[in-house]
Write a structure and sequence with these properties.
This protein is mostly beta strands. The protein is built from 2 helices and 21 strands.
Length: 299
């Protein structure tokens, strides 16, 4: 088996993620169909989100998270979850999904149906991000985009977004994403230019495509990830999303295009500090281009 570096940088969607609260003044109205909060509760949620932003260190990302790697099947957890079957298995404190490693990655994409969150009864801040990207697994740069679920004061908010770190912070674009939306996300590199695009075929106002320039990026990995975002060095509770399924995954390394299994792939499972599974990825399908991540617990 190919040796792996025992750490990866958990830069994507870290401290700045809570800045999505800044959009909630608009998101409350635009996303009215996805939240059951009353007007008073929505106003309170907006005020609380803005208050939280005042205390953020914008642009600061989470510390490196130690992970372990194994080429042996995982033991079943308390719920009897199946062992992971990737080329190399990685335990992460905030990522679940797959990462390809190599050099000169220039394209990554996938499609998914936006999961159905369960935010009712939860008064704490809980988030779940679903994204594709280049870099971030073993480098300090990352180019990524996708969708985001935020449970805030018992209400549900869902967004489309992109980020090019360290050039900028997370950029929220669409605020009316809803469970069941048909999503396609991609990142495509040409030289030092990165085109980040998300298409919401169900609610087209959430769709976008932007081309950004960033030099010196590693282009050494490609990812398909469900993430529990962080604030500073603190990983926030993972919003209940049941299952996220990434399909039609494609990737290009150098001049070779393929699927997740076409290249050196790592299968990631999200664990807490006591090694209890928070979110677990399934094995790849026969075509090597689809898998599911199942939510187990928030923290």
């Amino acid at each position: 088996m190919i040796a792996r570096h025992p750490r990866f940088l958990a830069y994507p969607l870290a401290a700045v993620l809570l800045a999505v609260g800044l959009m909630m003044g608009l998101g409350t109205a635009a996303g009215a169909s996805t939240t059951s909060a009353s007007s008073a509760n929505s106003a309170a949620a907006t005020a609380a989100a803005k208050g939280a932003i005042e205390h953020l260190l914008i642009g600061q990302h989470g510390a490196n998270h130690t992970v372990s790697t194994s080429t042996q099947p995982r033991a079943k957890d308390a719920k009897g979850a199946k062992g992971l079957t990737g080329l190399t298995q990685v335990d992460s404190t905030n990522w679940a999904g797959y990462a390809d490693t190599g050099s000169s990655f220039s394209h990554v994409s996938a499609t998914w149906t936006e999961p159905t969150p369960s935010c009712s009864g939860s008064r704490s801040e809980q988030l779940a991000a679903f994204w594709v990207g280049i870099d971030g697994f073993n480098s300090s740069s990352v180019e990524q985009d996708g969708t985001l679920i935020e449970c805030f004061e018992g209400s549900t908010f869902q967004y489309t977004w992109w980020e090019l770190f360290p050039t900028n912070d997370i950029q929220v674009v669409g605020e009316s994403v809803a469970a069941g939306d048909s999503i396609t996300a991609s990142v495509t590199r040409s030289g030092t230019s990165y085109t980040l695009a998300v298409t919401d075929a169900t609610h087209t106002a959430n769709s976008f495509s932007t081309t950004q320039t960033s030099s010196g990026d590693a282009d050494s990995s490609a990812e398909w990830i469900a993430e529990a975002p962080s604030s500073g060095s603190t990983i926030l509770p993972l919003a209940h999303f049941s299952t996220w399924t990434a399909s039609n995954a494609s990737v290009t390394e150098g001049s070779t295009a393929g699927t997740i299994s076409s290249f050196t792939d790592d299968q990631l499972t999200m664990d807490d500090s006591a090694s209890a599974i928070k979110a677990e990825s399934s094995s790849l399908n026969a075509a090597g281009n689809s898998f599911a991540v199942t939510w187990e617990r928030s923290s």
